[in-house]
């Protein structure tokens, strides 16, 4: 693994695999994944190896194999595999001799390149160069190229390429077989339909062969097998002569937004896909690549963050995060959202968690509000399913699923990894009792509204989400006669090492916040008495609900900080549990090593946390807690936290900034930045950690850049770590585009004017900078001393 670019001008943009090692395939497949939010392609090599995971996912196309299983994103047909034979010998890196090997991933445009000099077992040497991209310009397309040059002997080159629909998700075949066709010995199609959701997939490829740059009119041999259609090409090459094979491939599905609007006839989807692919193939690899590259250039221009750090890895990791945030997010369609592994692996089956609202949405809110809107609309589309969940559990309103797909109904599997005490699979309780997600979704909708002022969203979707989630909590509260309070018992908070706890502080506070926000929204709607109010009053009986919320909210038990120690109990029992020496697990090389020694039941009896719990609350509801409380709880809980969830470190980094421990904040940022991209060669075999990727941005921009907002006011509390001299980033706030630049002694906020607004009078914007009200018209400079305004 190498992070330095061979060409110095691309420093901070390129990540390389410098030696082939079959044990590390999964790592590179994940981090070098390509995509565009519609299509996600794991970076499996063209030739096959044991242990590889060849995945191609199309966002939103969930299928449930049988009723006992949860729905998952099916693995589409493989269009990348190439069987190459050189003088009859299969090209395979576990045979022969590798003279040089380098696979480079270029974040500038997500291009994957592989250069190899390989000698077969008979002593003939070849140079092979592969290139691959998934188009950002045309979401259905991907392109690949391989160039083969014999270096020592003239060679007979065979390339077998096609569409392989024999793919499964760890053995589960989600598709019914469809059509296979060969057109003009150049274009192949294979269709398949998901077994339960009835989504038709049309895979199409067109390939061309060249010798020394000139197209070869070869006659490839077509073949078909079960769920497979192939073409075999053959060409001769002299020493030094290059044979090039270009392939353009596409996927379309009957679930596509751009297809849904046209027709539903399967034959015409095939024809549509064919026309689409032919038009692309006529442009050729180079032009398609250029268009794709330009789309990325435009994107980077819009989102680019600059960091001057003594460690160049910081800049690289933030770019890596922004690259993955782009390819994991279905910005084209709000019927589905971001999976916990994006579109990079089978892990978590493509399901959506609280990860989206709490860890990923902030990036889009402040960088690309139009995409943020898609993410919050998704929760509106799934409101119906959330209402059903509430009813199924005996509650009212909307109870959002812990794991969500397209309907909004619960999709958490029931059984998980082995329980080391009983030897049976562990029961997964999160789908039943990790209920804080409902308040997190409401928080996401509100946060979006505050950051964008998007009243249309609020009127059409947001208010309803606020009211329905508050109603869920009102029906969820349990009256405790003895304490004369409402409690919430038997839940899992963010710390999943504590199951069946009562009054998890995070859950109670967020439920309270949710109800209070619904009360506030209802009052403001009542004041305007517009048609939104009339509709919600009619559909939801707002006045009646308001009465219930107001009556109950005042009695919700909110665990208070101890007046001496400032500690807030994480739940009713945590502070009384046994304390053990956690050093071994805190120094672990592989996460969750404690599960090899303790079962989930045993973990519930020890003061040990999987991830940030109360601390997340300090970030979401920052004004509800004093600095002393934040610091005291940080110092108590962090040493008991194993950071066994990838969501943990970035939250800790951000909160370390709030307690002004910048060295620790940086140390945690640096660790968070290495969860996927670092040198642990198995940390992300199952796919990227989407929330951790969002967390890298959060730690950099909301932590060191100090970007926060509270009730519609933007706050900037920048504090650079010692290793950074400068941080510059784009920031969107309520319709305005800002460029924020922080140096050690100066903060500069510039308003970027759109063409339409040049010359027009700008509305003054109020920003709190380190707690001091400042007003911005078009440009603001504040003197800082070590990050704090100079008095
Ligand atoms: C974490 C959850 C998270 C989920 C998906 C779990 O390991 O504990 O907080 O939502 O992974 O990323």
From TrEMBL:
Domain of life: Bacteria
GO terms for biological process, alphabetical: carbohydrate metabolic process
Protein name: Glycoside hydrolase family 65 protein
PANTHER family tied to this protein: GLYCOSYL HYDROLASE-RELATED, PROTEIN-GLUCOSYLGALACTOSYLHYDROXYLYSINE GLUCOSIDASE
One of the record's GO molecular function terms: carbohydrate binding
Pfam families in the record: Glyco_hydro_65C (PF03633), Glyco_hydro_65m (PF03632), Glyco_hydro_65N (PF03636)
Every Glycoside hydrolase family 65 central catalytic domain range: 319-698
InterPro entries linked: 6-hairpin_glycosidase_sf, 6hp_glycosidase-like_sf, Gal_mutarotase_sf_dom, GH65_N, Glyco_hydro_65_C, Glyco_hydro_65_M, Glyco_hydro_65_N, Malt_Pase/Glycosyl_Hdrlase
UniProt domain Glycoside hydrolase family 65 C-terminal: residue ranges: 708-751
SUPFAM superfamilies listed in its UniProt record: Galactose mutarotase-like, Six-hairpin glycosidases
Annotated residues for binding of substrate: 354-355, 610-611
Keyword Glycosyltransferase: yes
Assigned protein family: Belongs to the glycosyl hydrolase 65 family.
Stretches assigned to the Glycoside hydrolase family 65 N-terminal domain: 17-254
Keywords: Glycosyltransferase, Hydrolase, Transferase
Catalytic center residues: 496 (proton donor)
């Amino acid at each position: 693994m190498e992070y330095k670019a061979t060409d110095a001008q691309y420093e901070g943009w390129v990540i390389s695999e410098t030696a082939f090692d079959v044990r590390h395939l999964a790592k590179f497949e994940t981090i070098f994944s390509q995509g565009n939010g519609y299509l996600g392609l794991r970076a499996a090599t063209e030739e096959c190896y044991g242990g590889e995971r060849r995945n191609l996912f199309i966002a939103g196309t969930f299928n449930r194999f049988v009723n006992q299983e949860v729905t998952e994103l099916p693995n589409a047909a493989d269009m990348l595999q190439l069987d190459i034979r050189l003088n009859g010998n299969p090209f395979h890196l576990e045979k022969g001799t590798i003279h040089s090997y380098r696979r480079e991933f270029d974040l500038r445009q997500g291009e994957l390149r592989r250069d190899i000099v390989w000698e077969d077992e008979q002593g003939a040497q070849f140079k092979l160069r592969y290139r691959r991209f998934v188009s950002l310009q045309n979401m259905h397309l991907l392109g690949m190229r391989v160039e083969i040059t014999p270096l020592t002997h003239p060679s007979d080159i065979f390339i077998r390429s096609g569409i392989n629909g024999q793919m499964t998700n760890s053995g589960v075949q989600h598709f019914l077989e469809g059509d296979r066709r060969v057109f003009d010995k150049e274009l192949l199609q294979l269709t398949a339909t998901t077994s339960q959701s009835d989504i038709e997939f049309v895979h199409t490829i067109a390939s061309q062969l060249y010798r020394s740059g000139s197209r070869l009119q070869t006659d490839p041999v077509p073949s078909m097998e079960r769920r497979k259609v192939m073409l075999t090409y053959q060409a001769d090459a002299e020493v030094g002569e290059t044979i090039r094979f270009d392939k353009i491939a596409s996927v379309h599905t009957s679930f596509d937004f751009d297809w849904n609007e046209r027709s539903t006839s399967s034959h015409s989807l095939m024809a549509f896909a064919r026309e689409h692919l032919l038009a692309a193939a006529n442009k050729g690899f180079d032009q398609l690549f250029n268009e794709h590259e330009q789309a990325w250039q435009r994107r980077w221009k819009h989102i680019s963050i600059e960091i001057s750090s003594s460690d160049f890895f910081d800049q690289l990791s933030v770019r890596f995060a922004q690259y993955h945030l782009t390819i994991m997010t279905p910005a084209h369609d709000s019927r589905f959202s971001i999976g916990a592994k994006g579109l990079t692996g089978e892990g978590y089956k493509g399901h959506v968690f609280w990860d989206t609202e709490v860890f990923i949405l902030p990036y889009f809110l402040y960088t690309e509000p139009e995409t943020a809107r898609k993410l919050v609309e998704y929760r509106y589309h799934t409101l119906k399913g959330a209402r059903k969940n509430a009813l199924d559990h005996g509650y009212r309103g909307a109870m959002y699923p812990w794991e969500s797909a397209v309907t909004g109904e619960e999709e958490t599997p029931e059984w998980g990894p082995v329980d080391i005490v009983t030897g049976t699979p562990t029961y997964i309780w999160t789908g039943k009792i990790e209920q804080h997600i409902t308040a997190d979704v409401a928080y996401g909708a509100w946060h979006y509204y505050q950051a964008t002022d998007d009243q249309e969203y609020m009127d059409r979707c947001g208010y309803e989400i606020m009211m329905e989630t508050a109603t869920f909590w009102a029906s969820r509260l349990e009256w405790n006669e003895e304490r004369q309070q409402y409690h919430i018992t038997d839940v899992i908070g963010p710390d999943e090492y504590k199951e069946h706890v009562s009054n998890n502080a995070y859950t109670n506070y967020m439920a309270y916040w949710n109800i209070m926000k619904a009360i506030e929204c209802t009052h403001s709607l009542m004041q305007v008495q517009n048609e939104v109010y009339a509709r919600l009053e009619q559909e939801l009986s707002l006045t009646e609900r308001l009465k219930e919320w107001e009556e109950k909210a005042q009695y919700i038990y909110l665990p208070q900080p101890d007046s001496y120690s400032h500690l807030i109990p994480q739940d009713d029992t945590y502070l009384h549990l046994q304390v053990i020496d956690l050093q071994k697990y805190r120094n672990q090389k592989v996460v969750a090593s404690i599960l090899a020694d303790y079962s989930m039941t045993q973990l519930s009896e020890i003061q040990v946390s999987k991830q940030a719990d109360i601390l997340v609350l300090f970030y979401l509801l920052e004004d509800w807690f004093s600095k002393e409380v934040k610091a005291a709880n940080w110092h108590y809980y962090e040493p008991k936290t194993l950071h066994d969830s990838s969501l943990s470190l970035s939250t800790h980094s951000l909160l370390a900034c709030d307690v002004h421990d910048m060295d620790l904040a940086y140390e945690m940022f640096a660790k968070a930045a290495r969860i996927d991209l670092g040198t642990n060669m198995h940390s992300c075999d199952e796919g990227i950690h989407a929330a951790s990727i969002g967390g890298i941005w959060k730690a950099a921009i909301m932590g060191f850049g100090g970007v926060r907002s509270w009730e519609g006011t933007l706050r900037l509390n920048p504090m650079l770590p010692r290793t950074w001299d400068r941080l510059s980033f784009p920031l969107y706030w309520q319709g305005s585009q800002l460029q924020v630049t922080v140096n050690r002694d100066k903060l500069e906020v510039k308003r970027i004017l759109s063409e339409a607004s040049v010359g027009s009078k700008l509305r003054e914007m109020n920003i709190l900078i380190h707690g001091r009200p400042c007003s911005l018209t078009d440009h603001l400079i504040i003197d800082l001393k070590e990050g704090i305004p100079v008095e």
